Amino acid sequence: MALNNPAFSRSPAFAQGGIAVAQDLSARQIDEVYNRASTPTGGDVMTVENTIAKTVGAFAVLLVGAGIGWVTASTLPLLWIGAGIIGFVLALVNIFKKEPSPALVLAYSAAQGVFVGGISSFYETQFPGVVVQAVLATFVVVGVTLALFASGRIRASKKATKIFLIAMVGYAVFSLVNLGIMIFGGAGGNPWGLRGSVEIFGIPLGVILGVFVVILAAYSLVLDFDFIQQGTRNKAPAKYGWTGAFGIMVTVIWLYLELLRMFAIARN
Q1: 1 part of a folded domain
Q2: Do the Cβ atoms of 240 and 88 come closer than 8 Å?
């Protein structure tokens, strides 16, 4: 795909068509792509199986971090807030790093785990039961999307991806404007800003946006799966399985946090 998750787009290992699409790269970069695509053999190449194993490992680290964030949320709130900032910085480092680093991916998983656990505990205190709802909904969305992709019933396309990116930009702009409104006390002091103060046919805007974002996240997962599949076709080195794991983690964490907020707004 020409437009995609930056976790994958910065790496030629996931380029569609392998070396054939690298015509705009420098001679040195083309040589690097060629060497990566032709040299690895057997267990040294990226496969769906070893990418899944790396993804499971990264999520295991995230769950440990989430447990720490959950139990310390009320006594050490600065811990999970700080972990969120660190996780954001590590996400940028992983995105812009040319070569995947297992240590950085796992560090991102740990930091985001603490943040996810802490903010989940915060939401659960305000809206009992909302975390279970968000977790179950996340599993359903990921499971259904994976099943549809595996069966070939849903695939990424250039047109759909362009629409996806336009929608993402629009949503990002709205989120920044809404954050400003929340900080400066607009929207009648509603803690959710426009998400909670504006209703369409009696339904809070935050709930409608939540459904819209779930669709965006599901398509983002399709892009993730598509690039992992492309990486295996290109016979990328096995280390790029960590890039695949990182890309899926970013999408799933985003999906969960959006669902958590959507259910909280619906409760409110």
Answers
A1: no
A2: no
